Amino acid sequence: MALEQLVAAIGQVHAELAAQASRAVNTSLTLRNWLIGCYISEYELRGADRARYGDKIIELLSERLMQAGVSRSEARELRRYRKFYLIYPSIRESLSPELIIKLLPFATTVNFRESLYPESGVAPDELLSRISFSHIAELLRCEDATKRSFYEVESLQGSWTVRELKRQIHSLYYERSGLSRDKQKLSRLAHQQAERQGIQRDRPPIATPAAGPLTIRKGNVSLKTRRCIHLHNILDNAELVSPDIQHHPNSVVLS
User: Fold this and answer.
1) Which distant-in-sequence residues (6+ apart) come within 8 Å of 168 by Cβ?
2) Half-sphere exposure of residue 150, counting CA atoms within 13 Å on the CB side?
3) What is the pLDDT of residues 34-46, one digit of tens each?
4) Which end of the chain is more exposed for a tag (fewer CB within 10 A), N or C?
5) Considering the entire predicted model, what is its pTM?
6) Calpha distance 81→155 (Å, rounded)
7) Considering only CA atoms, which of 128, 99, 107, 120 is closest in space to residue 42?
8) Are 161 and 202 in contact (CB under 8 A)?
9) Among residues of the chain, what percentage have pLDDT more than 70?
10) Can you tell me the mean pLDDT for 25-31?
């Protein structure tokens, strides 16, 4: 092994392990926030003294957690974690049995609250391993479940940064795609623009698996959401609005 090969090998080891560490930290933070939301939601439903605090529970809890040194525990964040849990209850499927026993002791005696929203079309493991909680926070702003599922899939397929996800939402990408016949060209243009702007330098590296078909849940996914996901495969028969807009070339697999 020559010196140049040694340098290259060590550089590759460093890059790979650093990426794995970053990915692990990102997943742990997202799980932490989901678990906080789970505890808050279950307390509001079944807490022994919940009636004593009423609508002030979030503010009181935030104050106590901040005093205890728990980071990102402002009232606004706690409400976001609760919404995260309510919209994505399927994240529980990603928890190991050991973690459930250790951090969710009530899991064996309580039926988890059903989602108030249509289930996400993307498998929980995909969300946890391939996007950050900052992405999820932006997705939570989409009250329409079909719109949210659309941006979930596009973010994963395009490896979008948080800034790019925000930009695409503000540019009404979902609405434009739904009105266009040329879906593939629209998506290619959207992803190419993200690459040209070099936005991926604005976040810590979160390593993602090689681009490929996403794993899509069947389960309780609504027909409307499944149709939205199929935008990423076919949808060539919509009414023409502009010949310059099209959709992503990568297929999405319904498993």
Assistant:
1) 151, 154, 160, 190
2) 23
3) 999 999 998 998 8
4) N
5) 0.69
6) 20
7) 107
8) yes
9) 64
10) 91
* C-beta neighbour count of 186 within 10 angstroms: 21
Query: Which residue in this structure is represented by tokens 């010196």?
Result: 3
- For residues 91 and 34, the answer to whether their CB atoms sit within 8 Å is yes
Nearest to 180 by CA among 127, 124, 231: 231
Four-residue CA torsion sign, 192, 141, 114, 230: negative
172 within 8 A of 214, measured Cβ to Cβ: no
252 neighbors 233 (Cβ within 8 angstroms): yes
- Would you state the pLDDT for residue 177? 82
Dist. CA 179–CA 245, nearest whole Å = 9
What would the two tokens of residue 25 be?
């930290």
Please provide the size of the chain in residues: 255
DSSP secondary structure letters along 108-140:
TTSPPPPPSSPPPSB-HHHHHHHS-HHHHHHHH
pLDDT tens per residue across span 2-13? 878 878 898 999
Nearest 10 degrees: Cα torsion 233, 239, 243, 246: -20
3-state class (DSSP) for residue 253: strand
Given this model, what pLDDT does residue 84 score? 95
Q: Does the CA dihedral 117-122-127-130 come out positive or negative? A: negative
